[in-house]
Every structure is written in structure tokens, then in C-alpha cells.
Design a protein that fits this description.
12 helices; alpha/beta; binds pyridoxal-5'-phosphate; TIM Barrel; about 400 residues; single chain
Length: about 400
Amino acid sequence: MKYIEYIDNSLHINGINLSSLSDVTTPALLFFPTRLSDNVRVLREASPDRFLSIHYAFKANYHPLVSKILLSAGCGVEVMTGEELTLALSLGFSPKNIIFNGVGRTDAVLRHAVSTEINAIVVDNPCELSRLSKVCEQSGMQARVFFRFYPFFSSALRLPVFIPDGYKLGIQSFSELNAMLDLVKKSPLLKVTGLSFHVAVRARTSSLFIEALKSLISPNLLTQFPDADTLSVGGGFDSRFFLERSGNGVESFFAPLIDSVRSHPRFRRLVVEPGRFLINDCFTGLSTAITSKEAAGETWHILDIGTNVLIPRPNAHFEVFPLIRKSSKLHTASFADGICSKNSVIARRLLLPHLEPGDRVAILNCGAYTINMASTFGYAIPPVLVMENNTESMNTKISI
Ligand SMILES: Cc1ncc(COP(=O)(O)O)c(C=O)c1O
């Protein structure tokens, strides 16, 4: 089954004919659960021996069905706050499958993480590590810790300007690192089991990750971490739809990265924390074009779905497809919502068949950092409709 295709000029996504959903009120978000299971499958196939450990970046989307599918597929989760930790535990993720990133957790939150014996608490500063050490002493319990580095740690030290202005994450200096190592030497309850970094991009090739790995992992550095057998490269992989469309399939993205980590005899496990890759293309916005107008030399279609959900963050990339392809002639089209703000843009300068007010469109890649980050500014948050396609009967069952 193709992920997206026109059959007789009707748009099909994940095997479902979207033009058959005429009784569904717009705007709505359509969730395709089978795509999520399939995204896990293709990622797993990149490393069948389970060297790769998948920890879904929970922040991307908290929909309970997303968690249910990932749990039944045996995935772990990556959380970043005490609230996310509590939610992940309540949804059924086992503590041993939880990795906790964060940069300023309260003592109470650290206590919760230590007492539930989660897989790893990721720390990037001596101040928090020292508080974690005290929490461990008070409870007499050990904490498994990952040290999180700025991705280009050693090159960044040679070229300090390389670290983007205002970027607070990851260990960025030897003085911080040494202070953290001193704390570990003094506290037998802190066990550093892994190293981690997160390249905050929307990558379509793994070369940046391999460069970051080379920059970070030196024999000198590794000798400081005798118990660290895990490397986490975070998330930052583009959605599967875009990876495949750019010609870099999932296999050719992940295989070089996995090989490169595996070539370090030290590492027995590679952790990935994908948010966007797993969930982005599992949600499609369903929207109606309300008005067209010419402005700034472009043709704008104003949609009934708001950018309070499709937030125009620098890493967001939405693409619009008409539900019915009315002609083969293509026109340049830009899309926005009706909010009186110049930022409320959904997509610009796409080449599409003719569209007019009243036409319905699908917006791809609405799964990551959309409903979770949505505000109530301007528009209501649309309902999520779960699309189950029964391939035998060709029936589409919709539930909320
Ligand atoms: C530490 C960490 N891991 C994973 C992710 C998920 O990133 P993405 O959704 O781009 O895969 C993030 C996102 O900011 C992150 O900070």
C-alpha cells in the first residue's frame, strides 16, 4: 500500500480515500494508527538484532492511542519533565524503558525518577547532578545516568562560536564536564551508563549524526566512562514520508549511523529518541479552503484549520494536497489561516492543481508538535479522528 497516491484523481492516504469522508466536518485531524506500527517496523528492520533501542520522544504527541500502539510494539519512551514521566508511567510504559532528559528538574521530580528506577536520567550540568547525588544518598538508591553533551563537543571547544547563541543544552565546557566527573567519583550511587547528544535538526541524511559522533567520541573521553555501554543520539530525524521522498529510505538513513556506533566496541546499545520520524506522517489535517486572495505577489488560500495547531516553527514542514485533483495544470499556491498575523502561514509556494473556495485539502505531517503544542489562540483545537482501514472489506471505520 502506498502512503499517498491519487487514484482516479482522488487522494488516498494510507489506503483510505479521503474524498469519501464528505460527512466529516472540517477542520479535523485524521490519525492513521497502522502507519505508526509500520514506522516502528521499518525502523526496527534497520537493526534486527535489537542493537537499536527505540525511545519515542513523548513530547511530540501525547495521544493515548499513540502510546498504546508504541507499547504494544515494545518501544520505550523519552520524557523531559516530571509531568511527562508521570503520564508515561500512568499510560503503562515500564520504568526500565524510560529515558528522562531534562536540564532543571526539582528534587521531588528527581526523587520520583530515582525511586521508580527508570532506565536513565540524562544530566548535562554539575548543579543538577549534585542534587541528584543527594537524592540518591537520602534514598540509598542508585541512579543510572547518561551524560548529555553538546553534539559537537570537542569541535565546539576549539571554535566556541560554533555553539549557537543562547543554546543551553548539553555539556559545553571541560570545566563543567570535570565537575560532573568529580561528583561521579565521589558518589558510588551515580552510575554513568551512557553518553548522549541530540542534534536539533530535521535531518534527511545521517551524516550530521556521524560527524557529531566523531567529534564527541575520543579514546580519552571514553576512558572517563568505564561503565558507559550505551550511546543515545537523540531524535532529529525527519518524518518517514520526507525521508523516503527525498530518495533516502529509512534503511539508508539509519544503516550508516548504526554501523558507525557499532564500530566502537564500547557500545552495546544505540538509543534513538525519534518524535517526528515516528508520528509526524501518521496525522493528516483535513481542512476546507475558505477564501482565496492575491497578496505579496502570491495566491493565498485561507484554510479553516488554525496555525494554533499547525504552528509555524522553524522545523515544521506542512504540505497541502487537494482531495480531488481537478486538472493536471499546476499553479503556485500558498496557505494560511484567517488569523490577523503575518506569521500564520501553513505552507508557501506549492505547485498544485487549481483550487477554489469550498475545496477540501489534506495537510501532511500534522502528527508531531501540533496538538501537544496547540494553544487556544484564534481557533478551537480540531478533533482527532482515528482512521482504521479494513483492507478486506475496503471499509473505513472512524472513531474519536
Ligand atoms: C533530547 C531529545 N530527544 C529527542 C527529541 C525528539 O526530536 P525529533 O522529534 O526531532 O525526533 C528531542 C526534541 O527536541 C530532544 O530534545
